[in-house]
Amino acid sequence: MKFDESRTTNLKIIESIVYLVIWMSVFSIPYFQNRQYEIVNWGKVFAEWIRMLSFLVIFLLNVYFLIPKLLFKKKYLQYIGLTLLSILIVIGISISIRIFITHPHPLAMPPMNLGPGMPPMELGSKMPAPMGYRPPTLPVQKSIFMIFIDNFIIAVLVVGAGTTIKLMSKWQNEEGKRKDVEKEQLKTELALLRHQVSPHFFMNTLNNIHALVDINTEIAKDAIIRLSTLMRYLLYETAHGQTSLKKEIEFIESYITLMQLRFSKKVIITVNVPLTIPDIQIPPMLFISLLENAFKHGVSYQYESFVNFNLEIIDNQLNCSIKNSKQRSKENQDKAYSGIGLVNIKKSLALLFNEDFTFKIKENENEFEVQLSIPIYVSKESTKNFLSQI
What we know:
Elements: H1 2-33, E1 35-36, E2 39-40, H2 42-71, H3 76-102, H4 144-196, H5 199-215, H6 217-236, E3 243-244, H7 245-260, E4 267-272, E5 281-282, H8 288-298, E6 305-314, E7 317-325, H9 330-336, H10 340-353, E8 358-363, E9 367-375, H11 380-389
Parallel strand pairs: 4-6
Antiparallel strand pairs: 1-2, 3-5, 6-7, 7-9, 8-9
């Protein structure tokens, strides 16, 4: 969606700016540390920059590859393993390059000055040193192992800082999406209450029930119960972010039954839902927009037409298929299948499920079909009860 893409792009830009500022600050430290009286020791500066470059490589590899490809996809063991491996490889290469560039030589003891007229004595000669002479103290040199440990610790801290920033950015993005979902759900609920289940629908239904009272009392009573179920669902269930699949199916069946009162026998309506419904939660009024479109644009009062509603559960996926006939009027077809309503439905689905859903449209000259598949999560207890009843 446009606002999702805009927000994600803005967060990525801000994130990149933060990375740039931090690393520019880090790389400026050696320059200021090795500058005295307008003289810069560029040898030490470049040596430090080579060392810092290895940490920058590890940082970029972590935030732009390892975290998005592994950590965010919950591949934790692979993430930890590849992160440690990348640290070991990059630090090993960095230390090898620094050793090759600096060409270390064994430190030698400077010659001792024995006084005026006496040649300096080289280290290792047998001449005794003068009384009170103390050779200069040599700087303690770190072993390769200690250098590696120091760099490894710093690299781990760098990875931790990058991961923290990345997780904060992701949390901010998800929080924005959550707020968008709430806004979109509110808009959807209001739109459905005003338009999808419109006052015309209730007025026509009440008129049909009034006519049935004298013709078929039992059907009229059933229609009143269906209308009551539908109204109860609209008033109470849509106020929550989730509803049970069972109540959603009851709502769909009530809606279809009441719609059947308006049409003649030329309109064939079929409903196929699971005989045993597991205890799962889904967003309320998820299918009504698709179903309403099928009745609105696929049913003709003059010609034979049909609406088929199918719902099934396969491998933790809730699959819904709605197929309807096309009206023969070319003008009605142009209005019906302009695509504006379907685009809005896709936006709502993207907000609710991100990319974890499938929405397909199939059509030909005579039929129009919409297929929707969303993930469901069933508890172990519900799964046992569901399987035992099959």
